Amino acid sequence: MPAPEDYDASPFVPGGADLQGLRDAAAGCRGCPLFREATQTVFGSGEASARVVLVGEQPGDQEDRKGEPFVGPAGGVLTRALAEAGIDPAQAYVTNAVKHFKFEQQARGKRRIHKAPNLHEISACRPWLASELRLIGPEVVVALGATAGKSLLGSSFRVTQQRGIPLPMPSLDGDGDGDGEGEGTLVATIHPSAVLRADERARADAYAGLVADLGVAARLLRGGSG
């Protein structure tokens, strides 16, 4: 494998492909080492006509096994929060910034513990996300958590500072540092897994904040200013 700074999925991304063509090609991606341990590539799910795209971090354990994004506990939180915010979950396209599950195996037992992807892995996988967004052309993109935000806005992104604020959608061409504007509007929020990780006293507030941020996206879809 190449050095980390040379990780790149671009050679595996077919030009002119539709979403199914991208999905088929992504199954053979070897752009970074994460494919070695993951069960399979987990590509985005939804229709090319979707007006909103939700971008998470990476597949979790259940997503890796089933081959679909957001089908685990965090997906349940997201589906409920979308509905409460006024966005039909069935009308959204869901994907991840990184398409393979990165994990550590517990010394005892078979449990696989999530491990956050690094900037080299995020950058390597960006061509897949850029291709999805170009094909769909959504009005609103929601970045769910720090990894998605860094993939879309660059390494300086901080979810605590930029969540819930309508931002110009950056171009994903080039180095991925958020230079230049693309089409549509971006809204950042926490990843729904952060709700699950919060202690009992903080969980309700974390969930309410997620719904509020998604409500900004819902108002944009209705033609409001957020």
Automatic annotation (TrEMBL):
Instruction: Using the record, list the residue span of the signal peptide; answer none if the entry has no such feature.
Output: none
Q: Name one GO biological process term.
A: DNA repair
What protein family does this chain belong to?
Belongs to the uracil-DNA glycosylase (UDG) superfamily. Type 4 (UDGa) family.
InterPro entries with a match to the protein in the record: UDG_Type-4/5 (IPR051536), Ura-DNA_glyco_family4 (IPR005273), Uracil-DNA_glycosylase-like (IPR005122), Uracil-DNA_glycosylase-like_sf (IPR036895)
Quote the Pfam families the UniProt record gives.
UDG (PF03167)
The record lists the organism as Streptomyces telluris
Instruction: Name the source's superkingdom.
Output: Bacteria
Give the NCBIfam families listed for this entry.
Answer: UDG_fam_dom
Q: Which UniProt keywords apply?
A: 4Fe-4S, DNA damage, DNA repair, Hydrolase, Iron, Iron-sulfur, Metal-binding
Give GO MF terms, alphabetically: 4 iron, 4 sulfur cluster binding; deaminated base DNA N-glycosylase activity; metal ion binding
Q: What is this protein called?
A: Type-4 uracil-DNA glycosylase
